[in-house]
Amino acid sequence: MRDILDDLTRWSEQGTDIALATVVQTWGSSPRQEGAKMAINAQGEIAGSVSGGCVESAVAEAAQQVLESGSPQLLHFGVADETAWSVGLACGGSVDVFVERMDPEQFEFIKALLIKEEPAASVTIVRGPESVVGRKLTLSMRDPSTRFGSLDSGSDDQSVELAMQVAEPSLQELAAEGLTAFVDIMPPPPTLVVVGGNQIAISLAKLAKTLDMRTVIVDPRRAFATKERFPEVDQLIQAWPSEAFENIPLTRSTAVVMLTHDPKIDQPALELALTSEAYYVGALGSKKTQAKRRARLKESGLSEANLDRLHGPVGLELGADTPDEIALSIIAEIVALRHSDNG
């Protein structure tokens, strides 16, 4: 939902009715995965996508029906349907899309969590008796007692349990017979923490912003960590990593890259990053440099499992030479690992 949050906020402030379409299940070569969202307002404006263009027009038409009737719809598009060719899924993919009227109060609750960059989850009944389909429970995954809404089916406690357990957005059967819910996980935005404000870092920060990653630059050297060099980063910290990392949550949505070539800076940063939840930790340097780095880290007490998490030399092997090319190889490896972990 983060990618369409600005549009939803603007439409909501204008007081227009909004339908929200969510991919709840896919098979084969479906262009987008579970959790992808598209919003359609009463004026027919669209934000986001559920298929990369394949089924948007059909979903938009259903959305207008949902806005008029107030009743949610679970749509299916696939190669076995007579509409397969017309909606563009004849390549072999199938997708289920749940379309519902967006509740303004529930949206404000979700928006508040997303703005605070808290991990959030929502559980929505998508199959079952007509009287309960569309009921939704939303909660903070940091504090499950902070929640909004109810399924009103004796399934709230189980829903919270499911939301805290599942790793990815998915359909789940509830204990109440005949009820299927979509558990939508909304993690914090992906964050890139770069230690070292060199030219590669400048290029890397620009690429990360293009991919809607939150960017943080850490460098104790004042000449490198300046607003003039990094005008668009979300956070610029002129401090040693041991101090800076106290104020940077290294979560499962965080990638950390070391670019200084200076053990006094890299070493303490790596010790903290490799023992954190950060899903990616990389360090610039040749194979010889990496061998010496691993030896120092091992001497400092890191385990082999910790060391095996280190990507070094950093980046995919692209034959990169210039700072821009090296930055591209790094961001490509970060994106590849994120999708690999999520897949």
How would you describe what is shown here?
- By secondary structure, the chain is α/β, with parallel strands linked by helices.
- It has three domains: 2-101, no CATH class; 104-186, no CATH class; 191-342, Rossmann fold (3-Layer(aba) Sandwich).
- Helices cover 33% and strands 24% of the residues.
- The chain has helices at residues 5-14, 56-69, 84-87, 104-115, 156-165, 199-210, 241-244, 263-273, 287-299, 304-307, 323-342, and strands at residues 18-27, 37-41, 46-48, 73-77, 94-101, 120-127, 136-140, 147-149, 170-173, 180-186, 191-195, 214-218, 235-237, 254-258, 280-283, 310-311.
- It has a six-stranded parallel sheet, with helices on both faces. The protein has a five-stranded antiparallel sheet with strand order 3-2-1-5-4.
- Helix 6 (199-210) packs across helix 11.
- The longest helix is centred in the C-terminal third of the chain and has 20 residues, at 323-342.
- Residues 80-88 have low confidence and may be disordered.
Show the helix and strand layout:
Blueprint: H1 5-14, E1 18-27, E2 37-41, E3 46-48, H2 56-69, E4 73-77, H3 84-87, E5 94-101, H4 104-115, E6 120-127, E7 136-140, E8 147-149, H5 156-165, E9 170-173, E10 180-186, E11 191-195, H6 199-210, E12 214-218, E13 235-237, H7 241-244, E14 254-258, H8 263-273, E15 280-283, H9 287-299, H10 304-307, E16 310-311, H11 323-342
Parallel strand pairs: 11-12, 11-14, 12-13, 14-15, 15-16
Antiparallel strand pairs: 1-2, 1-5, 2-3, 4-5, 6-7, 6-10, 7-8, 9-10
Helix pairs in contact: 6-11
